[in-house]
Amino acid sequence: MKLPDLISTGWTEIRLHKMRSFLSVFAIAIGVATFFYTLSVLSQRYRDIGRAADIAGKGRIDVKVDYPLSLQQYHMLLNALPKGSSVSLETDAETDTISYKNKKLAGFILIGVLPTFQDSTFVYDIEGRFINWKDIENKHLVAVVTVYPREKDEERVHPLYFSSETADIILLSDFSKRVNLLNQQVMIGTLPFTVVGLLHAPPIEKDYRLPEDREYFLEVYLPYPVWYDISSLWRQDFSTRIRVVTGKDSNVRQAASILVSFLRSQFGAEFKPQLKFFQDTLRRYNREAWHGLKTMIFMGIVAMIAGGIGIMNVTMAIIFSRTKEIGIRRALGASRRDILFQFITEALLLGLCGAILGMAIGYISLLYMAEGTGQMTFSWWVVAASILIALTTSFFFALYPAYQAALLKPVNALKYE
Question: Which pairs count as long-range contacts for 291-295, CB under 8 Å and 24+ apart, including other chains?
Fold first, then answer.
């Protein structure tokens, strides 16, 4: 028989036994739904981790030291690292207030940064400009303020509240929604700063940074040396976060060795810096993504086995009910291969129907159960894998009964009652 005839015959048999066929299809569908859900979530998590890696930069190393670093030390470290590397220095975070036209604004943290802050995990749209090297060299009194989408503000950033004694203070996060501070002059402490840039953060569903790279308080950035100048009374108590981006994963170990040697030369041979490799962080997230879904994978396998057993039972029941028909077809010249393909085709049709129903159930489950469905993207490979799993299960579980049907001798089959 040709393939169209096999499909037509199989489909006719499925329609004649609707309840029996539905039970087999439903058993396959449960397994496919589990796999579809699990693979979709896993695919999305791996995709997000990949996006986070692209944003973070290749060959990234982070370390924190309990000392402030000077610009001279910055240049010494940069010159020692492999060519093409970037070094970012970031100060401690300090709470403060801003005065703007007799209004006091609070609820933020001040951080001193270098222009190289933009070389890693920088996801903002800039209105105006960011801090540049002229600001660093000349210690310009400039500031850059982060602003957030209104509907996402409360979900994303935790405001720093103040006591009832300061009830006249306005939260900067609220004030920036009403007033554009770009190019406005504000007072930080007793010094006038010009807001030269606004960093517009993306909505949560489009922020692909890893959780530890996201900000959880509204941040105002100052030039790195200016921050130390206005906080000089406590200078020796501040720490510095150092971020190195080598640009190549192959340079990470060399850069790490240079970084450790540099820090020990500056802070003593006994200094033991705790380097944090971004590659290790990515591997940890990948492991967590897989381990978190292993149970679902196991449940999917069990469900597919149950569905496969259902397919086998249905195929055997069909063979028993059609034994005389098999004998007639064999007597009229049908080969064993024709009989084998006939029943396997019918099982594959059941598997295909189960795959379609299972993917529909899995998609509905994603909408109502999966976290982060707002950024869930469609993956063709998940659809292909779900169909392949269903068809493979149907094929292998139908193979034995179909093979037994093909072995029936025409004389014995015709005598069967």
Answer: 293/38, 293/41, 293/42
> Looking at this protein, which amino acid is placed at residue 343?
F
CA terminus-to-terminus distance, the chain: 26
DSSP letter string, 174-190: HHHHHS--TT-EEEETT
pTM exceeds 0.85, yes or no: no
- The per-residue b/e assignment along 86-100, b for 16 or more CB within 10 angstroms, e otherwise, is bbbbbbbebeebbeb
| Rounded CA separation 321/314 (Å) | 11
Walk along the chain (417 residues) and give the pLDDT tens digit of each residue.
566 766 776 677 677 767 777 877 888 888 888 888 888 888 888 888 888 888 998 899 999 998 889 999 999 999 999 999 999 999 988 888 889 988 888 888 999 999 999 999 999 999 999 999 999 999 999 999 998 875 444 555 666 655 444 557 888 888 888 889 999 999 998 899 999 999 998 888 788 888 888 888 889 999 999 998 887 656 567 789 999 999 888 899 999 999 999 999 998 888 888 999 999 999 898 888 777 677 777 877 887 887 788 778 777 777 777 677 777 777 777 777 877 888 888 888 888 999 999 999 888 888 777 665 455 666 788 889 889 999 998 898 888 888 877 776 665 555 555
Structure-token match 């040396």, residue found: 225
Q: Is residue 206 a contact partner of residue 375, using CB atoms and an 8 Å limit? A: yes
379 DSSP assignment: -
Cα distances (Å, whole numbers) of residue 289 to 43, 283, 293 = 9, 10, 7
